[in-house]
Amino acid sequence: MVRRPGAVNRDAEDEYREFVASRLSPLRRMAYLLCRDWHTADDLVSITIGKLYRNWGRVGDATNVDAYVRKVLTHAWLDERRRPWRREHAVDELPDRAERGVGEPSVIDRSELLQLLGQLPPRRKAVVVLRYYCDLSVAETAEILGITTGSVKSQAARALETLRLMATEPVGGKKR
After folding, report:
1. pLDDT tens-digit map of 43-95
2. Is residue 101 part of a domain?
3. Is 175 within the bounds of a domain?
4. Could you tell me which residues come within 8 angstroms of residue 155 by beta carbon, excluding any fewer than 6 positions away?
């Protein structure tokens, strides 16, 4: 049997399949948080697991395969955002909300949070998802994005401030 470069042997392929099967749902959720579209999320996960398969012989023995996979997924999303056909975004209209009482604290629901997250610039959105959804450290986030830890901290702070401001902005003349 002739072995091709990058080919995975049967034992490694079984290990790869187990790894992917155990991480598929979290990867898909992370991809959705980044792009806010399930079809695109599935495409991003497919790209990610394809790249993982091609490099499994090298990556499979790494100490933190999850970090590698998150990095590949994040870069796949950033690459996808740069493509010209991705610059148009479909938007669903949200139904009118009941008016909240005066002095009531503003609590936003999951769909509102996803909508606000979708308004962040791509790099800031990636920082928020990696730091707060994936619960990665500043250093891990910086490594995945290829930026300094200071940039991660400032991007996270700016993103959270932007989210806070957007969450408290009046919608249609009514406070949230």
Report:
1. 999 999 999 999 888 887 778 899 999 999 999 999 888 876 655 555 667 55
2. no
3. no
4. 123, 124, 127, 147
